[in-house]
């Protein structure tokens, strides 16, 4: 085993698997190790210990996929080669994101990891968004993304972003999007998003079919969505809004 292979397996806590890891996986892990080492120099050794003790082979693969996606997103930022993330945020993204195997939710974790990178590596503002994403099911993450992508956004004169109410989806669409056909669970999922402050307060429109739900996001939900895309600048710039629009 080469020195580079040994280092990548060590950082990701997989050194004990040795030759059981095929060449393709080694390449993925090498890239992940190099990326984590570059953006998290002060905590690279501690991160390796964390993953070695607590992350299984399956979780390490998910973590490697997230870092690969994050690196791709970060490359779109100017001077990305000089940007770093606070070790606290890197550790949190790997710890929680590695439990997820849904590609679209991994993209969200990757976006938060990428948008955590700054020139001084001291910005912890993504901590709240990582805490929120860690509490979301895959279904909830998809419903939030749908609301943010399909809502009409506006910007106040003060520069605060918000979404107009009325991002209505039918029950059939909601079931397809969330992958849930239990109406009680759907209701719980939506209630949880509202409790976390990510969706505006709303309810199913009754008393007659077709029942619909309003997935209009809050300002917090929109800001989280933007960071989950790996975008570091103001949310208004991401959506192309101007003040007073």
Percent of residues in beta strands? under 5%
How far is the N terminus from the C terminus? 59 Å
**Tally the helices: what do you get?**
12
User: What is the rounded Rg?
Assistant: 20 Å
| Broad shape | globular
Order of helices and strands: HHHHHHHHEEEHHEHH
Unreliable segments of 5+ consecutive residues: 51-55
Name the helicity range. Answer: 55-70%
Number of strands: 4
Instruction: Profile the largest sheet.
Output: 2 strands, antiparallel
Give the rounded overall mean pLDDT.
84
What is the count of distinct domains?
2
Query: Strand order, biggest sheet?
Result: 1-2
Structural class: mainly alpha
Task: Describe the protein in words.
With 245 residues, the chain is mainly α. It has 2 domains: 3-134, no CATH class; 138-239, Orthogonal Bundle (Arc Repressor Mutant, subunit A). It is 55% helix and 5% strand. The strands form 2 sheets. It has a two-stranded antiparallel ribbon with strand order 1-2. A two-stranded antiparallel ribbon has the order 3-4. Helix 2 (23-39) packs across helix 4. The chain is globular, with a radius of gyration of 20 Å. The protein starts with a helix and ends in a 6-residue tail after the last helix.
Short synopsis of the structure:
This protein is mostly helical. It is built from 12 helices and 4 strands, in the order ααααααααβββααβαα. The strands form 2 sheets. A two-stranded antiparallel sheet has the order 1-2.
List keywords for this structure.
two-stranded antiparallel sheet; globular; two-stranded antiparallel ribbon; 5% strand; mainly alpha; single chain; Arc Repressor Mutant, subunit A; 2 domains; 245 residues; 4 strands; 12 helices
